[in-house]
Design a protein that fits this description.
Blueprint: E1 3-16, E2 21-22, E3 26-27, E4 31-48, E5 57-62, E6 65-66, H1 71-80, E7 92-99, H2 110-129, H3 136-147, E8 159-162, E9 176-178, E10 192-196, H4 207-212, H5 220-240, H6 243-262, H7 273-289, E11 294-297, E12 303-307, H8 312-323, E13 332-336, E14 342-344
Parallel strand pairs: 5-7
Antiparallel strand pairs: 1-4, 1-14, 2-3, 4-7, 4-8, 5-6, 8-9, 10-12, 10-13, 11-12
Helix pairs in contact: 2-3, 5-6
The structure holds (3R)-3-hydroxy-3-methyl-5-(phosphonooxy)pentanoic acid.
Length: 345
């Protein structure tokens, strides 16, 4: 009997950032994100007859080419999820994966990649063992978290939170949950994210190392308190449609994330001169026009500019003239807010 499953899963951009871990891939503070519509990973997992005595036998194809260098990461994930997906030791696991964005674009593929992989394994588990999981997406989110923390938020569409917080009923450190649409002013669902690609390729400091440096960061405790406060403030801003508060929280979070990097031991800076120039140009444009572009950053040099759909024409014009010349080969990705993963075939 041959088992296989194919899923497409998107990336997400955090508004309140997860930075710092505890236990096994649990977040030091809660986070919240927009699920994107672009920047997706499409993964097919097939189980084949095992040839070796090894605990795990894995083949990874990336953009159609065999990639032995990716096998270690997949084996680590299968190991971490061995109690969730007990069948993975009994077969050769073939992972065939493609990204809809260039590998070199500096866009992290771990969120879309680990969520797509988890969904495939959940689907295969259903084929082998029948539909025994009460909440399919919750299990996939739990599993994805063990691969990459932020991946657990890619399992749902719209606006998603992860991490226990008193003002987010049903929230958990172990899996993500989607915000109820009745709790969000509907204009936020029409936001766009223009990702301005400042730097391509691997980051100078991996997010795994970055997270671990929080353990000794002198500002860590204050940071975790601020993130918890920002979750509550952002929740209110989303509900009330308070764009001023939304802007303040989202931008403060991006600044604080990078301030934590600069105050770690060893300290490091992931922003580049073009990152700062873009931020300053956006802020000047906002002041001049009274429009609402909002800046955020993830753990890298690229800038995400979020803005309401109604302002699209003027803002994209401004970006074409003033921001794209600062990007690497004028590269960008423009994404709507997405509806989450899709099962294929
Ligand atoms: O999921 P990781 O380990 O790649 O960490 C992601 C960290 C940030 O992107 C900086 C913030 C976040 O919440 O996505």
């Amino acid at each position: 009997m041959q088992y296989s499953a194919k899923w497409e899963s998107p990336s997400n951009i955090a508004l309140v950032k997860y930075w710092g871990k505890k236990g096994i891939q649990l977040p030091a503070n809660p986070s919240i994100s927009f699920t994107l519509d672009e920047a997706k990973t499409i993964t097919k997992v097939s189980l084949e007859e095992k040839q070796s005595q090894n605990d795990y036998e894995v083949t990874v194809l990336y953009q159609g080419k065999e990639m032995p260098s990716f096998e270690g990461k997949i084996i680590q994930f299968l190991n971490r999820t061995s109690k969730l997906f007990t069948f993975t030791k009994d077969y050769k696991v073939v992972v065939n994966t493609v990204n809809t964005f260039p590998h070199s674009s500096g866009i992290a593929s771990s969120a879309s990649g680990m969520s797509a992989l988890s969904l495939c394994l959940c689907s295969i588990e259903e084929q082998i063992e029948g539909n025994k999981t009460l909440d399919f997406y919750r299990k996939a989110s739990f599993a994805a978290r063990l691969g990459s923390g932020s991946a657990c938020r890619s399992l749902y569409g719209g606006i998603v939170s992860w991490g226990a917080h008193a003002q987010f009923p049903g929230s958990s450190d172990e899996f993500a949950t989607e915000l109820n649409q009745s709790e969000v002013f509907e204009d936020f669902y029409s936001f766009l994210d223009l990702i301005l690609i400042v730097e391509e390729g691997e980051k100078a400091v991996s997010s795994t190392l970055g997270h671990s440096l929080l353990d000794k960061n002198p500002f860590a405790h204050t940071r975790f308190e601020e993130a918890n406060k920002n979750m509550a403030l952002l929740k209110d801003a989303l509900k009330e449609g308070d764009l001023r508060m939304f802007t303040k929280i989202v931008e403060a979070e991006a600044m604080m994330l990078h301030a934590l990097m600069m105050t770690s031991d060893p300290y490091f800076i992931l922003m580049k001169p073009a990152t700062l120039e873009i931020i300053n140009r956006v802020w000047a444009f906002r002041k001049q026009t009274g429009l609402h572009p909002v800046i955020t950053l993830d753990a890298g040099a690229n800038v995400h500019m979020l803005f309401p759909e109604q302002e699209k024409d003027v803002i994209l014009n401004f970006a074409t003239e003033q921001l794209l010349p600062l990007c690497k080969n004028k590269q960008y990705i423009c994404s709507k807010i997405g509806s989450g993963p899709k099962k294929l075939d």
